Amino acid sequence: KLEIMIMSARNLPKMDAFGTCDGFCTIVFQGSTKETSVRPRSYFPEWNESFSYLVDNTLDPGKLLIS
Questions:
Q1: CB-based burial of residue 47 (10 Å sphere; 0-12 exposed, 13-18 middle, 19+ buried)?
Q2: φ/ψ (deg, to 5) at 5
Q3: CB 29: neighbour CB atoms within 10 A?
Q4: What pLDDT shows up at residue 5?
Q5: What is the pLDDT of residues 10-63, one digit of tens each?
Q6: Which fold has domain 2-53?
Q7: Pairwise CA distance, residues 55 & 40, whole Å
Q8: Are 6 and 47 in contact, with CB atoms under 8 Å apart?
Q9: Which of 7, 13, 24, 37 is the most buried (most CB within 10 A)?
Q10: Residues β-bridged to residue 64
Q11: Residue 67 clears pLDDT 70, i.e. is over it
Q12: For the chain, what are the domain ranges?
């Protein structure tokens, strides 16, 4: 089992014509996509949201890329 905790983001860029952004985080793991809730008009969103994945035995335990 893999537990991922999304805590926060900092200094998000302005993304719309009004100079604001609606922050969210997308997680893709083994073909499954999950998203945090949206934090409207925040350059420093905080989520503190946890996500769980069942890990299959073919996963290389030494390789995990987070970006």
A1: middle
A2: -110, 120
A3: 14
A4: 95
A5: 999 988 888 889 999 999 888 889 999 999 999 999 999 999 988 877 777 666
A6: Immunoglobulin-like (2.60.40)
A7: 32
A8: yes
A9: 24
A10: none
A11: no
A12: 2-53
